[in-house]
């Protein structure tokens, strides 16, 4: 576990190196031929430092088609449980769901997303929770471009004020 103590890129675990290799060459982003991963997380709460990701669900959009055959759904073992969040996500601590460690979930998630554009509603929250899991594993943050559907909603919702406004959407 030498990679834990030396932060040089070459000393990160193999799964991080595989993920990072997808970003070695800059790519032009063509909206029609890009791969998107639409994702959502369920968590034990809203505190970035205390709470944890319970599960990640995702589906790829490749060349404009939703590829449900490769849908991603993973549940993570929990030491901490907040019963108040069950009303939001419906996941209970002793439910009979196959779970994996946080590290195994990160490994599988990085292998799944590769360099795809990540899409989520209120993406900052989901990605911060995932990045906090990566931080606990002493890894850098995700490198993917991100499209937050909240900004699409805000940019395209009907204008009820009668004032014309031009809004632009950007990938992070």
Summarize the structure in words.
It is built from 5 helices and 5 strands, in the order αβββααβαβα. The chain has helices at residues 14-21, 86-89, 102-113, 123-136, 149-156; strands spanning 35-43, 53-62, 65-75, 117-120, 146-148. α1 packs parallel to α3. The chain is globular. The protein has 172 residues and is of the alpha/beta class. β2 (53-62) and β3 form a beta hairpin.
- Looking at the structure, what is the overall shape? globular
Termini Cα gap: 33 Å
Order of helices and strands: HEEEHHEHEH
Radius of gyration: 18 Å
Q: Tell me the helix content.
A: 25-40%
Structural class: alpha/beta
Strand order of the largest sheet: 3-2-1-4-5
What integer is the average pLDDT?
Answer: 83
Mind describing the biggest β-sheet? 5 strands, mixed
Percent strand: 15-25%
Poorly predicted runs of 5 or more residues: none
- Please report the total strand number as a whole number: 5
Q: How many H/I helical runs?
A: 5
Structure summarized in a few sentences:
The chain has 172 residues and is of the alpha/beta class.
Overview features:
alpha/beta; 172 residues; 5 strands; 5-stranded mixed β-sheet
List the helices and strands and how they pair.
Elements (H helix, E strand, L loop, with lengths): L13 H8 L13 E9 L9 E10 L2 E11 L10 H4 L12 H12 L3 E4 L2 H14 L9 E3 H8 L16
Parallel strand pairs: 1-4, 4-5
Antiparallel strand pairs: 1-2, 2-3
Helix pairs in contact: 1-3
